[in-house]
Amino acid sequence: MDWQAFHLSLLLGVYACLILIPFSIIVARGIAWRRFAGRNMLQAVLALPLILPPTVLGFYLLMAMGGQSPLGQTYEQLFGQPLVFSFQGLLVAALIFNIPFAIQPIQRAFESIPLSIREAAWCSGLSSWKTFLKVELPLAWPGILASTIITIAHTLGEFGVILMVGGNIEGETRTIAISIYDRVQAFDNYSAGVMSALILLISFISITVIYSLNDRLGRRDD
Amino acid sequence: MKRFLLLFILSVPAAPAWAETPLVAVASNMTHALKDIVEQYRKAEGKNVKLTFGSSGNFTRQIQQGAPYDVFLSAAESYVAILAEKKLLAGEPRAYVHGRIGFFIPDNSSLRETTNLAELFNRMHYGDYRRIAIANPEHAPYGIAAEQALQNGGVWSISKSKLMIAENAAQVAQYVLSGGVDAGIIPESFTRLPMIRKNGRFLAIPETLHQPITHYLAVLKGSGQAGKDFVTYLYGKNAMSILLKYGYSMAETE
Amino acid sequence: MTEHSISVSLKQESPIPLNAEFSCSAGEILVIAGPSGSGKTTLLRSIAGLYRPGAGRIRCRGKVWFDSEQRVSVPVQKRSTGMVFQHYALFPHLSTAGNIGIALDHLGNVRRRQRIAQLLRMVNMEGLEDRLPHQLSGGQQQRVALARALARDPEVLLLDEPFSAVDQQTRKKLLRELALLKQQFRIPVILVTHDLDEARKLADKLCIIHHGRSLQTDRPGIAMTRPDSATVARLVGLENIFTGIVKSHDHNTRTTWLEWDDYLLETAYKPEFEPDTVVDWVIPSENLILHRRDRPSRGERENPVHGHILEFIPLGEMASVLIRVNENEHRHLSLTVPTHVARRNGLEQGGAISVSLLAEAIHLMCKE
């Protein structure tokens, strides 16, 4: 059982959430309630990581972050180490490949809040900010929680992109999914089995929680 | 709960770990040999080494992109040559060991009756099998050697349509063991593994049937002293004896 | 215009055409009535600040809430409106007390609790402070919405289709509560509905809206018997709308003569219509008197009209009768008679029938 890899994966998931969830709340809320030109295109772009093969995503991320890229070179100048094949590089990748998982549940949650409720809040004297805090968030929290869980779970499981962008560096980019692959290649089926079972358990619990959260959202509409 | 989260979050890998412990990229065929060597190194010198196994081609690409390896054990000269040209090496690459290949025929294979190479080539000539796994002949040195052996054995044209391409040498063995493959060309060093020994037969391929698979050791630019120390150990008697045990032969050094 | 009232004047081409003007005084209930899609909810939302119309002015108690020329538009939160939404829009995650309390952010805890209790008493919801909206009946939810709307002492109370989703009993209670409230609060109350029956019962003033235009604003009694135009007549549910030509006026008998194809009708004296003017006219059904075989009366001499019964539909105690005048397909008169009278007079489909049109009730309107 490669605890270091597990720890690394969890850390990656948590950090990705810390950055992605607030961002998603802002973006998803905007998309949920506004009709603007290019709305469909924006939604399509944000959903891309869902459909793109991980290798395609990994390829583009490598081009964008690699040693030859402006981003990669700037980073290396600032921090003295390359962005690719580092934990920070994985974090950038995790932010990208988790976007649809973070945004969609939150968007659905906000969409399920009727406009009339927000209008009632405004008519009751609540500013936009107070309305967000006291009315919107309490109603949208199941979606936000679902987003968080699925982002972490998905990060634990992501393989292709991480392999391409991070390599397989112990303690730095060897996440648990990579570690499992590594163990299989080394004919260590026992370790691979233990880690896989753990991930399976975590995934199962995550999905169960998410379904019951969706239920909660759905029930309120009655 | 909050405190636990805080502790957890603060344990980020802030400074890159490669500062002290050298990071060694090893062509996957040497997986088990290097593991033994590193364990011995740890016992003998008290120092640790981090290993990553994979295909030489992949490592070369990664290193060009800035992957922070200190030492590269490549299964072919061409790759270290690329890195040398790109000025990514510290010093000259040195030839290290020769590797050998052979056919691994699992117990459930349709070819399991064959007991020698000539018989195997004969049966293969008649296309009497479903699939054969080799490492990718586009970029994996063991794959290139496998292709050469198959060509010289006169069975390449038939094999081509039954090829299962693995990403690297280690993955070949893994494909063969997971079933559905009648034979795979694997590094001879793998025969030391119980998993291989118990589950099939190994027929060595003579070196005359392919170009030598010469492994090269290179220290990468930016490597610390620890990396260089490890390379020195790798050329030492202890390391070499382990390698010989795994069926490698010494290459010409200076 | 008194100090404590609200005046609204809005104009817009698209996306929803609007051209409405009305005002409402303190303690008065103005009902904006019109068919679905007539723009009445948009008007209400404009007053609340939830919609920004193209042009116009909204002034409440001397304060300008919206003035397109001056480019003034006070945000929703700053306008002192109380709005009761059509489906109540209660916050599902808050209790009754919470729903009302959220509008009372500016008060300290003690004051807030007192105010909530006061409001709950006012709408007869005491004891239900801790219930969540889904635990309340439709009528109770409406009352919470009302309390919430009144929480901040608004300067105008707005209600969007308050009768649309409630049963008869709740409707009666609501009518009573609104009547009490308007007396108690001395604020203008503006209510939007498509239900003319309720409008008639509740309104001090009725504003008829059609395609975003305010056609007529009057006391309900007037709007519904003396509509300004044929359109308004139709909107307030009047039948018996026809076209005629004013022939002459007789100053001595105070009569105006109206030509209705082959009939010459006498109506109330309306000298403002020039002779030979084409007009629309309407007579409410209750002012058609049946010529009874069993009890002929003098009233039969007034504007007698003869025809055949096109439709005879008994509906319980009353029967609905549709008459085709003469052989003319296009002139249909509609009236209701008690079923027993209909039976006694042998009314049946296809049978001959005569009615009198009461002169005073014939209302002339300018042709549109």
Model description:
The complex is a heterotrimer of chains A (222), B (254) and C (368). Chain A is mainly α and 222 residues long. Chain A is built from 10 helices and no strands. In chain A, helix 1 (3-33) packs parallel to helix 5 and helix 5 crosses helix 7 (128-157). The longest helix of chain A is centred in the last third of the chain and has 32 residues, at 189-220. Chain A is globular and about 65 Å long. Chain B has 254 residues and is of the alpha/beta class. Chain B has a 6-stranded mixed sheet. In chain B, strand 1 (23-27), helix 2 (31-45) and strand 2 (50-54) form a beta-alpha-beta unit. The longest helix of chain B has 15 residues, at 31-45. Chain B is globular, with a radius of gyration of 20 Å. In chain C, helix 3 (109-122) packs across helix 4 (138-150). Chain C is α+β, with helices and mostly antiparallel strands and 368 residues long. Chain C has a 6-stranded mixed sheet, with helices on both faces. Chain C is elongated, with a radius of gyration of 25 Å. The longest helix of chain C has 18 residues, at 168-185. Chain C has 9 helices and 21 strands. Chain C has helices at 40-48, 96-101, 109-122, 138-150, 168-185, 196-202, 220-225, 230-235, 339-344, and strands spanning 5-12, 18-25, 29-33, 55-60, 63-67, 72-73, 81-84, 156-160, 189-193, 205-210, 213-218, 241-250, 255-260, 263-268, 277-282, 288-290, 304-315, 318-325, 332-338, 352-357, 363-366. At the A-B interface, helix 1 and helix 9 of A face helix 1, strand 2 and helix 8 of B.
Beta-strand content of chain C: 25-35%
Count of beta strands of chain B: 11
Tell me, what's the shape of chain B? Answer: globular
SSE run of chain C: EEEHEEEEHHHEHEHEEHHEEEEEEEEHEE
Number of helices of chain C: 9
Strand neighbour order, sheet with most strands of chain B? 2-1-3-10-4-11
| Percent of residues in helices of chain B | 40-55%
Q: How are strands sequenced across the largest beta sheet of chain C?
A: 7-8-9-3-10-11
* Biggest beta-sheet profile of chain B: 6 strands, mixed
